[in-house]
């Protein structure tokens, strides 16, 4: 009964959102949408029960309404829906929408600074995923490996550093609960600084800190260097999350490096891309990775490669493969390799 209640509430919210947004379009509003999903086939997996599993799923649908209220204020509401992750034990149910973004943006006239009140993107993922450019294929490394959430509920400030146009910042204080409810008195602080010293070059440093009580905490450090031009792009990302385990317990450090690149074979029609993620530490959260669960018993090495074919503007058909193989653990047997082949459909309007 409870599940049906929330499902109905979510569907009613979307219907109300569509009707009210449609009525407001004539007054300067804008509706947009994004879809991506796959046909997948698992050729090999460290969990033998998943081998030969195949099917169709919808990994993301975004329905977004943006509206400029006046010269200072603007707003966004975005709903997200996706298929339950059928690779996780016990996963079931239907697609249920929820609120992804809901914020008021304050941009004083003549200022290069903005304040966002509500649920908005975190500084963790505001730059690297854009340079990677293939979120429809896979999340960037920090998000994929469960370092944090793309969204948080709180207050954010972003803009350019006064007198240094090439340097921008993004700071935020939020619940630290992503799109879930706050369950404690602690908050998460985020800060990123992005430098663009010359055309195409992007350098970013990032830190966040979240106390969790009883001596437990999380601190994330990230560094990124990228190069982005019209027909090619590349980047290197390093991440380290230090997880305080509490009084008397040794901290756990989760480190990883990601290297990626993409290039146009035929501009506006065919691109090729590749990425390699090397986890320098065992990630105990790896089995929780959505749609591509990995082993949490050994350091992982993940290769992603594919071809992006665009038959029409904003429509992409992307055959790709994702392979993970593992280092020998200090204790226990080495996990078997994972190999998943997918054909990803991505479009937006």
Range of strand content: over 45%
How many discrete domains? 1
Helix-strand sequence: HEEEEEHHEEEEEEEEEEE
Please count the helical segments: 3
Strand order of the largest sheet: 1-2-3-4-5-6-7-8-9-10-11-12-13-14-15-16
Number of beta-strand segments: 16
Largest sheet: 16 strands, antiparallel, barrel
Structure report:
With 349 residues, this protein is mostly beta strands. The chain has a single domain, classed as Porin (Beta Barrel). 9% of the residues lie in helices and 54% in strands. The protein has helices spanning 2-24, 128-132, 141-144; strands at residues 29-44, 54-68, 73-81, 98-106, 113-121, 151-161, 164-174, 188-195, 201-213, 216-228, 232-245, 252-266, 270-279, 300-312, 315-326, 338-348. The protein has a 16-stranded antiparallel beta barrel. β2 (54-68) and β3 (73-81) form a beta hairpin. 30% of the residues are buried. The mean pLDDT is 92.
Show the helix and strand layout.
Layout lengths: L1 H23 L4 E16 L9 E15 L4 E9 L16 E9 L6 E9 L6 H5 L8 H4 L6 E11 L2 E11 L13 E8 L5 E13 L2 E13 L3 E14 L6 E15 L3 E10 L20 E13 L2 E12 L11 E11 L1
Antiparallel strand pairs: 1-2, 1-16, 2-3, 3-4, 4-5, 5-6, 6-7, 7-8, 8-9, 9-10, 10-11, 11-12, 12-13, 13-14, 14-15, 15-16
Question: What distinguishing features does this structure have?
Answer:
349 residues, mainly beta, Porin, 54% strand, globular
